[in-house]
Amino acid sequence: MDKVRTKELRSGYTTGSCAAAAAKAAARALVDGTLLTQVTITLPAGGQLTLPIARVEPGDGWCRAQVIKDAGDDPDVTHGLAIVAEVRPAAGGISILGGPGVGTVTKPGLAVPVGQPAINPVPRQMIEREVREVLPPGQGARVIISAPGGEKLAHQTMNPRLGIVGGISILGTGGIVRPMSEEAYRQSLVPQVDQALALGYRHLVLTPGRLGVNKARELGLPPDCIVETSNFIGTLLEECAKRPVEAVLLFGHLGKLVKVAAGIFHTLGRLADARRETLAAHAALQGAPREVIVQIMNMNTAEEVVGILQRYGLSNVWHQVAAAASRRAAQYVGDKYLVGTMMYSLSGEIVGYDAGARQIGGELGWHIALP
């Protein structure tokens, strides 16, 4: 019998590696006029990586080089983007600046200070090392990293949420993009927590998606304390527990937060889904008749349960589910901080909340009158 072969996913390289390679190629052209077609750089953890150079453009007292970002088989929005480095001679050391398409940091709490281009520390070190390797001893350089089209692409990243304006970030701690890396996506969400803390917040709002972010803002919750979790609610709860967070409000659509009430902290549907069973159990605890339990167990979406419970005068079930979600989340992090939960339906109606939500939301100054 033939063995089934799975396709091996292809790795790519980070924007940081692209910037370092482009800077090295531009510096080489500036120093001796060599127009390289490929460049080998040293990776942060050791080893080397060879990248193709798409273009080298010599000028009067400057040189530019371009690398096309290749993310391999990773679904990276910057795949195919040109990363450009312009190098000019300068006195002293090597300065690294941001050009068009590279964002600027406007809020504290990130690895880059406010007012600086969003070129993270490891890529900066890579760029400086590669340029210094080419320059004659004692010569300095001014390196400008740009990413034409980065302004538009940035809207598909976390940058607007993090206060990085005007373009993408130059990132990468390892230099190589590992395809389909869930861990990398998880970690890209964590800086939101650090930024909220840097801005003085100790009470944070965790919400699974953009709908929750927008709804939380509508209720008057401060935008800078709202953290988008995607499906990784557990990861963000854990990260909050490692930091001086005092309270967390879980705020989101009922379909996601019902899962938390069941102790499910990675809420992707194909991994775990106990919404029917959880809602049916809580309805039964509130005295729901068998016909209600049957309807809940036969539902297509959790949204349908709003109407079912309403018809039978059992809307209080949502408050019990919210309280259960808070208990499970608090237990998950060893009761390191207060947890409250508030859930809404797709219509925007608040359907369930607990005492913790009242307390945290009130202290954050939300604009909502709860019965």
UniProtKB/TrEMBL annotation:
Q: Which InterPro entries match?
A: CbiD (IPR002748), CbiD_sf (IPR036074)
GO BP annotations of the record are:
anaerobic cobalamin biosynthetic process; methylation
- Enzyme Commission identifier(s): 2.1.1.195
Q: What class of enzyme is it?
A: transferase
> What keyword terms does UniProt attach to this protein?
Cobalamin biosynthesis, Methyltransferase, S-adenosyl-L-methionine, Transferase
- Asked if Zinc is a keyword of the record, the answer is no
Question: Which GO MF term does the entry hold, naming one?
Answer: cobalt-precorrin-5B C1-methyltransferase activity
Matching Gene3D superfamilies, A to Z? CbiD-like
Signal peptide from the UniProt entry: none
UniProt family annotation = Belongs to the CbiD family.
Protein name according to UniProt: Cobalt-precorrin-5B C(1)-methyltransferase
* Organism annotation: Desulfotomaculum nigrificans (strain DSM 14880 / VKM B-2319 / CO-1-SRB) (Desulfotomaculum carboxydivorans)
